[in-house]
Amino acid sequence: MTYVDGNAIIGALSIATGTDVSLADIVCGACGQRHGVAHAHVYLRCPGTVIRCPVCTAAEIVLVEIDHHIQLTISNVATIDFAPTS
Ligand SMILES: [Zn+2]
After folding, report:
1. How many domains does the chain have?
2. Running DSSP on this structure, what letter comes out for residue 68?
3. Residue ranges making up the domain that contains 40
4. E-strand stretches of the chain
5. Residue 79 CA to ligand 1 centre (angstroms)
6. In angstroms, what is the span from residue 6 Cα to ligand 1's centroid?
7. Over the stretch 16-55, which tens digit does the pLDDT of each residue have?
C-alpha cells in the first residue's frame, strides 16, 4: 500500500483541531521519535485516513469524515506539540 506525506492531511487536521498544524510535531507513543506532521506517512485509501509514524509505522491518528463531521481516533501518540520551538 502506498502513502503520501503529511501535507495531505494538514488541512483536515487543522479544521479538526481548530489550529494550524502545519508546523506541529508529533511524538510517537510507540517508538518515542518526534516528527513533523508533514513528515508523517498518510494512507488515504483505508477505512478513513490513517496517519502513521514515519519511523516505526505505528498508526498514530485515524481521521474519518462523514457528512462534514470529522472524527479523530488518536492512538500511539505521546504528544502533539502545536508550536514547537525547534
Ligand atoms: Zn514511531
Report:
1. 1
2. T
3. 4-81
4. 4-5, 25-28, 34-36, 41-46, 48-52, 59-66, 69-74, 77-81
5. 12
6. 14
7. 999 999 999 999 999 999 999 999 999 998 889 999 999 9
> Which tens digit of pLDDT belongs to each residue from 4-23?
999 999 999 999 999 999 99
Closest CA to 4 of 71, 76, 52: 52
Tell me the CA–centroid distance for residue 74 and ligand 1, in Å.
Answer: 13
- Residue type at position 52: R
55 belongs to a structural domain: yes
Q: Provide the Cα torsion 53, 83, 78, 39; round to 10°.
A: 0
Question: Is residue 86 in some structural domain?
Answer: no
Q: How far is the CA of 37 from the centre of ligand 1 (A)?
A: 13
Distance 73 CA to ligand 1 centre (A): 16
CA 67–ligand 1 middle distance (angstroms)? 31
Cα-to-centroid distance, 38 and ligand 1 (Å): 15
